[in-house]
Amino acid sequence: MTTLRIVLGDQCSDGLSALDGIDPTRDLVLMAEVRSECTYVRHHKQKIALVLSAMRHFAARLEARGLRVAYSRLDDPANTQSLRGEVARIAAAAGATRIVCTHPGEWRVLADMQGWAGATGLPVEIRDDDRFLCALDRFRAWAGDRKQLRMEYFYREMRRATGLLMDAPDLPAGGQWNYDQENREPLAPGTRPPAPLRFPPDAVTREVMALVAREFADHFGDLDAFGWPVTAEDAQAALEDFVANRLPGFGRFQDAMAEGEPTLFHALIGAALNVGILDPRAACQAAERAWRAGHAPLNAVEGFVRQILGWREYVRGIYWLRMPGYAATNALEARRPLPWFYWSGETEMACLRAAIGQTKKLAYAHHIQRLMVTGNFALLAGLDPAAVNEWYLVVYADAYEWVELPNTHGMALHADGGVMASKPYAASGAYINRMSDHCRGCAFDVKRSTGPRACPFNYLYWDFVARHAARFARNPRMAMPLKTLARMDPAKVQAMRGEAAAFLAGLKAGAA
Ligand code: FAD
Ligand code: SF4
Predict the structure, then answer these.
(1) How many angstroms separate the alpha carbon of residue 269 from the centre of ligand 1?
(2) Whose CA is nearest to atom 7 of ligand 2?
(3) Strand ranges (E), 40-173
């Protein structure tokens, strides 16, 4: 009686539910590198290298625990290059009598998994993914028939449930649930954020990088700067480096952007969390310990815990609650193709050039760049949500649909009509100017809304508000911009809308 236990690429976790109760003498673990997973979108080269390297290290770790592992390498001629194909092939070769796996992160993979019983003739048990702090049933129960699924209320419930940052059962640490009002500063002049720890590729990663360079040469992004953690030990070191050096400044400068500073005070742990080599609860606990020891202020620690315990769990809940229909919505009827500069980074707009340039080089941009620069532009320009969603899924080392889609489709593009956010995160150049130094070196003038050097974010913003005025009239949170628009000189509005139309018509579309 052999049970085949499946470990997917983003399930490289010691405590994975698929491994619970494993019999080391009879059971077999299957880990498969398959082309279909590397190419369903043309992932950044660093993302493929990261996942394959984490998988190879994790397989060695399981073997060191005394477990038997069948590992399908991408370049093995017998590899069928699909998950279903490898499950069927290895199950037959091993004489397996049942299959056990952990619930996958993505809808697409769950649909495939549900066909494995038919493909193999074996019973398939899909266990909950208990690496998350909120089980999907719990999220469903919380969502219930609420009209609005606000993250803040979900987050408070998670604080109570986990006891993280709580002084007593209903008393949040410091007396407040949220310290965000202290977290909106631009980078103070002369501040040099401490560089994050990078991990030079070891022999396993170098071998994988050569494979990726050979097999996926036409995918987006550079490989050279690869420095991601690929083992649990590396991920723990990355977390400790963040807590010691950047967590104290994380809150204050969480929304800041700066030329030549791609990582600021951010943690750079999303890729490790999502591939499974770092535990989200441990990350929150490490931050809480730093606060209790007096090493980091509460606004920073609460802000960090909210991202993981709040946002990360919440977006996963929304994804599984609303899929598969969620991805097909297009509430703002946005249809414009993705401009070529999203792939090339070649644009005179300094903020976009910086965000896209570092994305190519590092497979990383921090939250405000994703939301308020590339996301904001896509929202204002009315870019097709499907194309934008795919771009975000391609370009980041931490991108998986369960977390990427609600953030892009819901938070950045408002394509879900307000499930995630009660108003669109739309902003003119003034926001980018307040939170960054990009405008100083830009070919455009952030103070102008019309004329040849006018900042495109300005006229695109007002064109966006005017274009959707009737739709937004019912939204009290859009009352301010609508009132301002109504008070503007109609000739100026007309001029801005004309410039917006000419600018958008001049965008060159393109695929990766
Ligand atoms: P930090 O800023 O240091 O935050 C710490 C951790 O909090 C992150 O590692 C992450 O696990 C969690 N977190 C923070 N914000 C969010 C959020 N909004 N949703 C979920 N988790 C969050 N995150 C991904 O993990 N994968 C994605 O594909 C992804 N796509 C995004 C697309 C858009 C348009 C936007 C606006 C955000 C996206 N995010 C995504 C959320 C966030 O930008 C990244 O988690 C973060 O930038 C990762 O870098 P970090 O580890 O330095 O994060
Ligand atoms: Fe971006 Fe406009 Fe500032 Fe240029 S002027 S960096 S386009 S916001």
Answers:
(1) 9
(2) 349
(3) 69-72, 96-102, 124-127, 166-168, 171-172
